[in-house]
Amino acid sequence: MSDTTGKRALRPATAMVHGGTMRSGFGETSEALFLTQGFVYDTAEAAEARFKGDEPGFIYSRYSNPTTRMFEERMMLLEGAEDARATASGMAAVAAALQCQVKAGDHIVAARALFGSCRYVIETVLGRAGVESTFVDGRDLDQWRAALRPNTKVAFLESPTNPTLEVIDIAAVAEIVHSVGARLVVDNVFATPIWQKPLTLGADVVIYSATKHIDGQGRCLGGVILSSKDWIDENLHDYFRHTGPSLSPFNAWTLLKGLETLPLRVRAQTDSAARIADHLAGSGKIARVLYPGREDHPDHAIARRQMGAGSTLVAFELSGGKDAAFRFSNALEVIKISNNLGDAKSLITHPATTTHKNLAPEVRAELGIGDGLLRLSAGLEDVEDLLEDLEAALAAV
């Protein structure tokens, strides 16, 4: 196979079409899909050399695969990372990125505003393994400082957070975490790699659920972990090989197709999200609207500093609680009810009864996840149709 990416640095939109492409002797235009479990060797000596690492090449698709590697390398170009490993889902990426670098007796500090499954991994899965954890208000830098211990090895955060879109100062947290020799892991799903680059802000590891914007069309699951080559070699490489959270080559191929249009889709969805946020805020019928791109967002100054735009999600709260939220959602026609996000279709969910239902009521209250809160992911429909759909739903409430 030949690497066709060339030597010249490519801008993001171009890199998402051509980056990381390897072509076989057939010279195919679209990336080849290698649906194979294993690979053959010319000789027993060649197999020995490849397993020893003396000879480059693929060994087994649980370790790596040509199609999967193309996806990893394209993500490396987009993120500005030295290396990457693709995983079967976003949660596989979260679990692997955390588990591979901690052991019993270690300590993790995490921002309290997390996707429910992320919190489960930290509190329950790692807790059973003897890893201690402390949750802090991610926006309060003093809480990060106070939570650090001599045995703190990892800090973890989302920014913007799910679902209330809090924006955390990644550079400031990275500086605090590094002061005790710990590493910062950032879930960058909501910001997307188009609008935020955590590695340039001081993060050590970045993770994505590629299921969201990277696929962007509701087709498959996937995840990816990006970091320095040293970190992956020292922490993730062996863990990944032996535990097997690898991405299917078919899904990797699908995600490669998604990356080709990622910059176009995210920019269009962001434009629509901004219009939706302004429209809802001006309607006089919404208790509060949360969108990092608006000046009335509590963390707007940080968002302006570290994000290129407000991204594709809008959160808003109806004063009538769960009943009003359900009536509003059920009245929508164009916007569909789903817990996914980053899709070409606009999607809405009620976090208190879906993505964050397993959190205790007092924890949801602490996080600002009220019974009237809805999270809207802007899609690629005509924004005027979306605004009309929202107006009709508001009338129903």
Account of the protein in words:
- This protein is an alpha/beta fold.
- The protein has two domains: 9-257, Aspartate Aminotransferase, domain 2, CATH 3.40.640; 262-396, Aspartate Aminotransferase, domain 1 (Alpha-Beta Complex), CATH 3.90.1150.10.
- The protein has helices spanning 12-18, 44-52, 66-79, 90-99, 116-128, 141-147, 170-178, 192-195, 229-243, 249-282, 300-306, 321-331, 361-367, 383-396, and strands at 2-3, 22-23, 83-87, 107-111, 132-136, 152-158, 183-187, 205-209, 223-227, 288-290, 313-317, 336-337, 347-349, 373-377.
- Strands 3-9-8-7-6-4-5 form a seven-stranded mixed β-sheet, with helices on both faces. Strands 10-11-14-13-12 form a five-stranded mixed β-sheet. Strands 1-2 form a two-stranded antiparallel ribbon.
- Helix 8 links the parallel strand 7 and strand 8.
- The longest helix is centred in the last third of the chain and has 34 residues, at 249-282.
- The chain is globular, with a radius of gyration of 22 Å.
Order of helices and strands: EHEHHEHEHEHEHEHEEHHEHEHEEHEH
User: Percentage of helical residues?
Assistant: 40-55%
Q: Tell me the distance between the termini.
A: 59 Å
Number of strands: 14
How does CATH name the architecture of the largest domain?
A: 3-Layer(aba) Sandwich
Let me know the CATH homologous superfamily of the largest domain.
Type I PLP-dependent aspartate aminotransferase-like (Major domain)
Strand fraction equals 5-15%
CATH class of the largest domain: Alpha Beta
Q: How much is the average pLDDT? A: 96
Query: Number of domains in the coordinates?
Result: 2
**What is the general shape?**
globular
| Largest sheet data | 7 strands, mixed
Rounded to the nearest angstrom, the radius of gyration is 22 Å
**Uncertain stretches:** none
What name does CATH use for the topology of the largest domain? Aspartate Aminotransferase, domain 2
Q: Helix count?
A: 14
Helix/strand class: alpha/beta
Question: What strand order characterises the main sheet?
Answer: 3-9-8-7-6-4-5
